[in-house]
Automatic annotation (TrEMBL):
One of its GO terms (cellular component) is cytoplasm. Belongs to the short-chain dehydrogenases/reductases (SDR) family. SUPFAM superfamilies: NAD(P)-binding Rossmann-fold domains. One of its GO terms (molecular function) is oxidoreductase activity, acting on the CH-OH group of donors, NAD or NADP as acceptor. CDD domains: SDR_c (cd05233). Pfam families: adh_short. This is 3-oxoacyl-[acyl-carrier protein] reductase.
Length: 255
């Protein structure tokens, strides 16, 4: 898809990958970008940066854990060409099985239920306007055998399967759904893994793996949006290995 002149929504846009993607969409000529997050001051900062890059921006406070509010918002605002379902949260401490039920529900609703609801409503709107592209932020943990944060890994694996199952929408609705699988990325979410900062297990991960910058992942998101030769359900994993960005491409029918 040619991004020039298009309308977009980016969730989790207050920082990290969402902010970087929104700014890159603006730099590519997107006309309007709706920014969604729960962090008001940081979201306003992203909006200023997006407008400085040349696009109209709207800052929208929305708690994706509130599924009724999410459905209402996307019903009213989901008529766009591009949707980046990027928002996500981790368990923090304590971990499963000691994490409380309310936190488990919030992780499932933000990482998975809201993403499905947003995709459903956006696809319906995109079908009416002639097509579109949706990119879901997954994680490379969806390719592995396990991860310390059980609920985060479980929801991301589900998002991976959902993305692959959306492959037929390209032919049926003109909507191409793709997956972005970041490896380790230096974003503020890392500081929510522990009590008031990085957890000990996250510090160990950081000590043994190289981190991408949010912009590294955003470049992959832009590539997924722009390349209409890709099949529905295609995905790319982005990691930093030996000081260089590594891309691993996959398809809905090959895992």
């Amino acid at each position: 898809m040619d991004i020039q002149g298009k309308k977009a929504i980016v969730t989790g846009a207050a920082s990290g990958i969402g902010r970087a993607t929104a700014i890159m969409l603006a730099a590519r000529g997107a006309a309007e970008i709706a920014l969604v997050d729960v962090k008001e001051a940081a979201l306003a900062d992203t909006a200023r940066r997006v407008e400085a890059a040349g696009s109209r921006a709207s800052a929208n406070l929305l708690d994706l854990a509130d599924i009724c509010a999410t459905e209402a918002w996307f019903t009213a605002h989901g008529d766009v060409d591009i949707l980046h379902n990027n928002a996500g949260i981790v368990s923090g401490l304590p971990q499963f099985p000691d994490v409380d039920a309310a936190r488990i529900r919030a992780i499932i609703d933000v990482n998975l239920t809201a993403l499905i609801a947003a995709t459903q409503l956006a696809v319906q709107a995109m079908r009416r306007r002639g097509g579109g592209v949706i990119v879901n932020t997954v994680s490379t943990v969806a390719l592995g055998t396990g991860f310390y944060d059980t609920m985060y890994a479980t929801t991301k694996a589900a998002v991976m399967m959902f993305t692959r199952c959306c492959a037929p929408l390209k032919e049926e609705c003109g909507v191409r759904v793709a997956g972005m699988l970041p490896g380790l990325v230096d974003t503020p979410i890392l500081d929510t893994t522990g009590a008031g900062g990085k957890s000990e297990w996250m510090k160990a991960v950081l000590a043994n793996h190289e981190s991408c910058a949010p912009e590294d992942i955003a470049e992959g998101v832009i590539a997924l949006i722009e390349d209409d030769s890709l099949a529905g359900g295609d995905w790319v994993a982005v990691r930093r290995l030996n000081g260089k960005i590594d891309y691993q491409w996959g398809h809905a029918d090959t895992g």
